[in-house]
Specification:
single chain, Amino acid/polyamine transporter I, about 425 residues, 20 helices, mainly alpha
């Protein structure tokens, strides 16, 4: 066989190729926090809220979700930038940059918001098992003990992978959105042109959509994950790509849930059970839609029921400056271990309160929506400060955009709060 000869590779190409490979390796290394943080919104509360939007108002909330996607990108990017340029999590920065009372207020708001999330996750576990004929009064206590034991005594990493695999069932929603044959002209019209209503129910659901999509836990995770990865300012371009693509991907799934549900049962009114939410998956799974939905709901709920109280305990311990590790005993890390246990216990007990689990899930997302503008204000103030970020601080245009987002979310939250309080006294 004749010897093969190759023309010498130009020096420029020899240097460009390794540089491209390094960029690819770097991108793969930092890929994750943005995707994971944004997809955290597609948990039990998220699925119930998006499905309720589709069943109650058809495609009308798609324009709201388009705006919420822009807001999520802005908020997650600021959180990631804070983590990359300071090497610290949000709670540590709040403790360092704000007075003690403001820091304490942020911690209390975080605890309330995340406790609401924990309640919604256990409600999701109960709703999933009810699809299989198991009472919530059996499934939720067993799940609470199992999740607590796995994190404290077992191998949480293996459980995390199992829960993630179960949660992948919700990838079926984008497929169902296509196979359900919606009116794509109407979908596009409602996505890019406002078709909103001024009713109390519509505003309530809008705040729930904000609360489940821009969840305070997601911003905390985003900043902490980027900081813990050791990613610095030089690698931030890749982190930014991960953050933006993660937010867009997560909200494509969210909008697909709305589209699939609107096509299947749109106009039928509020959801009354998880079974109704499963109907949107019938184009994919047929008679197995209920089982597919139940498996996905169980995986997403169980994962978040472990992660949210764990992340909350880390954040609070970080803010106060005390020992934090699951490898420590209650005596060595009393605040950390005690808070984690308390969140599991309280969250599961509230989820056992008699009533409609779908309504409970929605109410918890509204609670998050009321607290979200407070957390966003802290993030905005931190990202605006040159003393924190230097030249990486928000520029004039981003300051205006972020401020508008915070103000709009706050106004909507106040309107819903006023409506809710007025309703208690029979004024509305």
């Amino acid at each position: 066989m004749a010897d093969e000869t190759h023309a010498p590779e130009p020096a420029g190409e020899r240097t460009v190729a390794p540089r491209r490979r390094r960029r690819l390796y770097l991108w793969l290394a930092v890929l994750g926090p943005g995707l994971v943080a944004a997809n955290a919104g597609n948990d039990a509360g998220g699925i119930a809220t998006y499905a309720s939007a589709g069943s109650q108002f058809g495609y009308r909330t798609l324009f709201v979700m388009l705006l919420v996607t822009v807001a999520l990108i802005v908020v997650q990017e600021m959180s990631a930038r804070l983590g990359a340029h300071t090497g610290e999590g949000l709670m540590a920065l709040i403790r360092e940059q704000f007075p003690l009372r403001a820091s304490a207020f942020a911690i209390v708001m975080l605890l309330i918001a995340n406790l609401g999330l924990v309640v919604s996750e256990f409600a999701g576990i109960g709703a999933a098992f009810e699809l299989f004929g198991v009472s919530r009064y059996i499934s939720i206590p067993i799940a609470a003990v199992a999740i607590w034991a796995v994190v404290v005594f077992g191998n949480y990493r293996y459980a995390e992978r199992a829960f993630l695999l179960l949660g992948l069932a919700f990838i079926a929603y984008p497929i169902a959105a296509v196979l359900g044959r919606p009116d794509w002209g109407e979908v596009a019209s409602n996505t890019f042109i406002p078709h909103m209503l001024g009713t109390k129910e519509f505003l309530f659901l809008v705040v729930a959509l904000i609360g489940t999509t821009i969840t305070p836990y997601m911003q905390l995770y985003q900043a902490a994950a980027v900081a813990d990865s050791g990613t610095g300012p030089d690698e931030y371009r890749m982190v930014r790509i991960d953050t933006i693509t993660g937010a867009i991907f997560a909200n494509i799934v969210s909008m697909a849930i709305i589209i699939a549900t609107a096509t299947a049962i749109g106009g039928s009114g509020p959801l009354s059970s998880a079974k109704e939410a499963a109907e949107a998956l019938e184009p994919v799974a047929g008679s197995g839609a209920q089982v597919l939905f139940g498996i996905g709901l169980l995986g997403a709920s169980a994962l978040a029921a472990a992660v949210v109280p764990l992340a909350t305990s880390y954040a609070v311990a970080e803010a106060i400056g005390v020992e934090r590790s699951v490898s420590r005993t209650f005596r060595e890390a009393p605040l950390f271990m005690g808070l984690f246990t308390a969140l599991i216990v309280i969250g599961s007990l509230v989820a056992l309160v008699p009533g409609n689990l779908i309504d409970l899930l929605l109410n918890m997302q509204v609670l998050n929506g009321l607290i979200t503008p407070i957390i966003l204000l802290f993030i905005l103030l931190l990202a605006n400060r040159r003393s924190v970020l230097g030249d990486a601080a928000n520029g004039p245009k981003l300051r205006v955009l972020a401020a508008v987002i915070v103000v709009v979310v706050a106004v909507l939250a106040v309107v819903v709060l006023v409506q809710t309080v007025a309703g208690w006294f029979g004024l509305l």
